[in-house]
Amino acid sequence: MKRDPILQINDLKISFQSGKRFLPAVDGISFELREGEILGIVGESGSGKSVTSLATMGLIPSPPGRIDNGEIIFGGRDLTTISEKEYRAIRGNQISMIFQEPMTSLNPLFTIGNQLIEAIRLHTKLSKAEAKARSMELLKLVGIPRAEGILAEYPHQLSGGMRQRVMIAMAMACNPRVLIADEPTTALDVTIQAQILALMKDLNQKTNTSIILITHDLGVVAEICERVIVMYAGQVVEQGDVRTILKNPQHPYTQGLLKSVPDLREKKERLYSIPGTVPTPGSVTQGCRFAARCSEAFTTCLEQSPDLYTMEKDGHEVRCFLHTVKEGRNGHVGVTS
């Protein structure tokens, strides 16, 4: 049964000023987050993942950033058109975000209790005592022992994993309908990463919160996501069901990302890496943005920009000319849909 979308991003374009020019950071991306699902957004640094999440939260700094086009539809309203006052009622209350580095997100001058209680009272009518009780309940929910003692401690007294749990508790304080997690496990060791991912999956199942998980780790996506969006240079290059894309990736970039993942069953001298680097925003003005790094590229790729094509076989979408032509460079036979 297909679930209704809770959040829709339509043709979103975001740019940042550099000198006298505005450079595109996100260029016409569209996707939807469905009720109660975990959606993964994958890509290298500079692909536009975090900028998309900040735009959803209404946190694009202006200047130098601006939203040039598109809609962010939540609760039947386009969030790009509402006032900052209206956004404050939604941000943290109905849409929450877990930031990448908890040490910079928590205020080092205030105790964990102060910060949690303030977040709760900002969006609810609870008294201070009720907010404290709710804080302890949240800390226990995210697996923190001796909750009352933690409330009296400062961020620097906690480990990285504990700080990240506090950030998740803070994000879940008002039972948001949408939770955006921006690289929530990047700075953590492997065992703590597994605990945080299990915790997020558990929260999703218990509270039916829809989650957008932003990461560069396809292993994380395979672990807990239902659908995945692959971004490159500000565009969506592939999107669809996780199993379909991981088993049968159609875009050369997605294929390269999967080849870069170490395989414990094989012993290799060197790990595979995609040649080249992500282009700087605005530097590719013609052709496919991945063409310079792509082993499958042919003349059309350098001259025209591909659209997102829907695969007939499984319905997932891919931005690549190999799915519209039969013969490519040097007689290369492309995949057709």
Distance between the termini: 25 Å
General form: globular
| Strand coverage percent | 15-25%
Strands of the largest sheet, in order across it?
Answer: 6-7-8-3-9-10-12-11
Largest sheet: 8 strands, mixed
Mean pLDDT: 86
Question: Helical segment tally?
Answer: 12
What structural category arises from helix and sheet content? alpha/beta
| SSE pattern | EEEHEEHEHHHHHEHEHEEHHHEE
**Record field, number of beta strands:** 12
Poorly predicted parts: 326-337
Write out key terms for the chains shown.
4-stranded antiparallel sheet; 337 residues; 8-stranded mixed sheet; alpha/beta; disordered C terminus
Summarize, please.
By secondary structure, this protein is α/β, with parallel strands linked by helices. It has helices at 49-56, 84-90, 102-105, 112-123, 128-141, 147-151, 160-171, 190-207, 218-224, 242-247, 252-259, 299-303; strands at residues 5-18, 21-34, 38-42, 65-74, 77-78, 95-98, 178-182, 210-215, 227-232, 235-241, 309-310, 317-318.
